Amino acid sequence: MSMAFYAQADVKIGVAGPFTGPNATYGAQYWKGASQAVADINAAGGIKGEKIVLVQGDDACEPKQAVAVANRLVDEAKVSAVVGHFCSSSTMPASEVYDEAGILTITPGSTNPQITERGMKDLFRMCGRDDQQGAIAANYMLDVLKAKKIAVIHDKDTYGQGLADATRAALAKRGTKEVLYEGLSRGEKDFNALVTKIGALKPDVVYFGGCHPEAGRWCARCASRGCRPNSSPATVSSPRSWSPPPAGRSSPTAC
């Protein structure tokens, strides 16, 4: 865990998320966004003449580390507000710390519905919830891809499984039962058994709830077995996933 402190300033805002580990790309993106926003605000005179400074807290998308980061931001950095965390599994426990301290918190990427359904008056989010995304994905698979057989897999994380469950529920409301519902572990590298199982079922569509590290390895394993699904967090891969696509083409993806 790392905690970077910057020069003394009038208003301190914490930016907490994965700045190391497999999901560090997300932390880097919203750190850049927050930094640019602060630069613009400070150039315009700050907040009532007071300058803003950011305090970075790295949780690596690990729940225990997220709690430690939250405690440091509150007790040591004395932040006035927090932008974070990113992973739902980190935001859930860290938000308990901020709520107790009365710290305004805005998560840019945590989609689990329970995050904002626990009565925390100072906690907000800037993204759609799993139940919203799940309904959109289900409708797309059924109405656009015209899928009849759908496999749903996830990474067993709060975000990935929550999104897969929401999509599964939305499919059920439309009268569709998935042909497979299965989880893979974060950090897993060998997907042979799962690829074989899905290949035997021959689904029209595979929906994956999770983040890009597992999605990337999953795609690579599929490609090595003769299927080439484009995959990304919360991905829908089309029917061509389970047979080699035409030369120069890959199967379409919807997120």
Q: What would your notes on this structure say?
A:
With 255 residues, the protein is an alpha/beta fold. The protein folds into two domains: 11-125, 3-Layer(aba) Sandwich (Rossmann fold); 130-241, 3-Layer(aba) Sandwich (Rossmann fold), CATH 3.40.50.2300. Helix content is 40%, strand content 18%. It is elongated. The protein starts with a strand and ends with a strand.
Q: Summarize the amount of helix as a percent range.
A: 25-40%
Give the SSE order as H and E letters.
EEHEHEHEEHEHEHEHEE
In total, the number of domains comes to 2
Output the CATH topology of the largest domain: Rossmann fold
CATH architecture of the largest domain, by name, is 3-Layer(aba) Sandwich
In short:
The protein has 255 residues and is α/β, with parallel strands linked by helices. It has helices at 24-43, 63-75, 88-101, 130-144, 158-173, 192-201, 212-224, and strands spanning 3-4, 11-17, 52-58, 81-83, 104-107, 123-125, 150-154, 180-183, 205-209, 235-237, 253-254. The two termini are 31 Å apart.
Name the descriptors:
Hydrophobic amino acid ABC transporter periplasmic amino acid-binding protein; Leu-bd; 255 residues; 11 strands; alpha/beta; 5-stranded mixed β-sheet; Leu_Ile_Val-bd; amino-acid transport; disordered C terminus; Rossmann fold; 6-stranded mixed β-sheet; 2 domains; transport
SSE inventory with pairings:
Elements: E1 3-4, E2 11-17, H1 24-43, E3 52-58, H2 63-75, E4 81-83, H3 88-101, E5 104-107, E6 123-125, H4 130-144, E7 150-154, H5 158-173, E8 180-183, H6 192-201, E9 205-209, H7 212-224, E10 235-237, E11 253-254
Parallel strand pairs: 2-3, 2-4, 4-5, 5-6, 7-8, 7-9
Antiparallel strand pairs: 1-3, 9-10, 10-11
